[in-house]
User: Fold these one by one.
Assistant:
Number 1:
Amino acid sequence: MEPTLSLTRSGNKISHKLKFTPSLDEQILLAKIQRQNCLIQYRLEEKLNRILSLLISLHISREKTHESIPRVLILTKRQIQDIFRAGIQDTLNQIITIHNGLILPQARKLDYSRFSIILSTPKTVKNDFKEDFFVKDHFSLIVIDYAEMGVSSSTLRFIIKKLKPNQVVGLSREKNTIKLGQACVNLELTEFVNIDGNARRERSNIQYYSLPLPKEYFFVLDILNQLKKNRLIQLEKLGFGVTVKSTPQEVAAIHTSLLNEKNRKLLVKTANLQRIMTMQRMVISQGFPALISYFDDICHRLNDNDYVIGRKALVQFLGNPIINKLNEYVRLFSELVHPKFRQVLKLLEDYGSSVSLVTNNRYNAKFLQEKLNEKGVSTINITQPISSLKRIQLEKKLFAFSGKKTRVCITNTANELIANLAWF
């Protein structure tokens, strides 16, 4: 088989010797994945080390030219670098050098030209690239351990965007297919491979869409982000344990503690900071129409003479000139719906009735249900975790959907029963 020959020979000389004999299944798997940007899901490290050694050996053993010298970059967490290297070197007779913040920058710079395989951390590689220690096409293969981190890691997205390898391979033990799917989108991985069982390639029947937000959304998000940062810095200067990266949960905890202390002045600050963070999430997940409704609700509460709690915070919030301008701005684009809602409408048009939508964000679910109902699309939203329902309970909730009286079923997790009832 041709891929097998290219693993261990360059001309008539063995250049990179494996420490094991590949099985037929492994050779077949390698032939399928060697030129694909893929995500490898695994359970046993031994199986992973063998197929990874095969892939690395193939890249390193290819004919070298002056224009392109095959090199491999492996990204993983700092605390497991030694373990990862030991696992690969049990199956591959090849020097693997480790990079992290403990290695001097000048030494790392020299290593990029001296070694074929670099085992590093995402942050170290990002910094080294910015320092011009290597060019964008320096590596022919990039392997990303803990690929599920691609969902949230801006550093990994930076690396994928800036570097130009021939192939990217992700590794993961994660079982959540929704999370893995989003990681595949962010890391530009087009195939899903499960090497447990018979080590065969599987192609997912789930289609993931990457939907860019309109430029008007980014304009509003940038302003809200600056407002949030300024208020977090103020709290930090007052001695609270926050940073510009603090989460809504952290701010809510501070607000609760201030309620117990009855510190009204600071309560106004934390209440309005929470409103700004809520608006950010709303723009990202639901769009301008939901944000306009949010402003209208605040105005209604302020005009309600019976509403007493938090009135001072609301007056200060709406009295902020920047917030006022944002309110005016979003109303200029009141018809600019979120792109995901347009995509849902298109899918409904393409696939007809019985469509299953899955989102683990309850605000998204409520937003989609309301918008679909406005468009005359009958929808049910099962808010309870599907796993907490017995089959008979689930079937009862799905009665209208299974009878084709309801077009769309929104749930928080994928479910085989619902999928079988849906066209899409």
Number 2:
Amino acid sequence: MSKISEREFARICRGIYEDRDIICRHNPIGTRGETLLWMLLGCLMSYLDLTEIETPCFAGKMTAETYRDAILFVLRNRKAEEFDAGRHLEKLTKE
């Protein structure tokens, strides 16, 4: 099972934040926060090599909170060490 360190998680979040304007311009799926969290979830699914069974399933309209919860769910058993992912998500979605 692939794991992620806080350092690597922070690096991915920082990269998405730095590219936020172009990400949102080319992926207008919802609000700015929803789009950035959607991108992060996609990156984590690839980085952690999640199987179809491990990939979160969604029903209904997606919100930033839904993406946030899915990211925290994915990280629950995939952190190399304990860290506060929420802190990084807050930085990622700040305007």
Number 3:
Amino acid sequence: MNNLLIFFAIPVATIILSIILETLIKCPFKVAGIAFSIFLITAFALGGTVEWLVLAIAYTIISFISAYLTYMFENKQEENSPSNSSVVRNCRRFR
């Protein structure tokens, strides 16, 4: 059961939360930083072994990749939208 949690549940939850945070924050580096801080605190709370620290780094990489892919997908959608006027583009920067 523990292996299922480490290799399936936590990575899937990381991907989902990274996608949600990316749509709110719009910066993959910030999303990865938030994920890394959460995983690092959790790793030290669970004992601080090398295995937990390696998992924290691996989950952070997964978080960054999913946030970056979401960022790229959103930018591609905005380029292809019919309301791509200069006024709309300028307003999107300030959200």
Number 4:
Amino acid sequence: MVDTGSGVFRHIRKVFFFVLKLTIAAAVVWFIAAQNFQGIKEGFASFRYIWLIPAAAIYFFHMVVCAFRWHRLIRVLDIRMSLFEAFVLSMQAYFFSLVIPGGAIGGDLVKIAMLNTRTPPGSKAEGAFSILMDRIVGMIAMFATAAVAVICSAPLLMRMEIAEWPLRPGMKIGGIVLVLLVCLGGIAASLAVFCHRRFFPLPVIRQVVAWLDRRGRGIATRLAAAADVYWRNPKVLFGSIFWSVLLVHLLLAVVFFCLLAGLGVTAVSGLTVVTAVMLGNLAGLLPFSPGGIGIRDIIVIAVLVAGGMAAGDAKTAQLLYTGLLIGFNLFGGVFFLICPGRRRTVEILRQAGE
């Protein structure tokens, strides 16, 4: 018999925590606006909205680059999928990452399930692994860029205050060290995927691999083989990391510069903007709100203000940036509506909620 009671409880719990995250995000954004409402109002009134066109175009281009990156990683495993299909699935994943309780992981789960309908039997695990590899490549690029930005911006970060609350020098130093440790640890953990053969001789690992293979039709061995394939294709692997730094993470700083140009802000340095965006992306990984909204805003604004920007301009620019993020994630829902397989996606979502 199916335990419908526990299934309903799990669904209620997911919805509860999703609503809680939405509440946290809304409360933080409201707090940010309330602290400098007049300055933000004036910022929106004086903003030259023509600058939203290049900002939106560049933001959309960065999403296309992410889809192209995943497509290249899929092709390495000889999985047949067109670039357009990869783009459509990526856009749907952005949408579901924002609107379903699972967050970014939930979006990836839907992406995996939809990919499974497009891959032949015997290749489904490899298809899912390509999504994990895409995450790993993106994480390495983000952690590396953030680490360099933090090291170069240490004096700037020592002037940082969080939401106008004073921080002691020791807390700031501790925060800088913590961010660097997170970045280095993230890079090390990501690269460890390609060193799995070194761990296989360990008795515990060998037993786990054997158990997974028995339960999943050799899934552990197949995934290890897939990781080996990527390691034997360094041009694709490290090329994807390199282009992710330039055309994903640093490109988001260009988006921010467009918003600042619309506000008429020209005095802020490029390093300040890059550091703000990268630390905001790191804060966005925290599972406290959908898409990191709210937490990301606090960090970005704090860095910009520490870099000499007026609080009203910093908050206006970040709220516009958050609007772009939400808008494009919701735009991904269009690809769900026009996708012929949307009924299958609905069924996947229904099963995930049980």
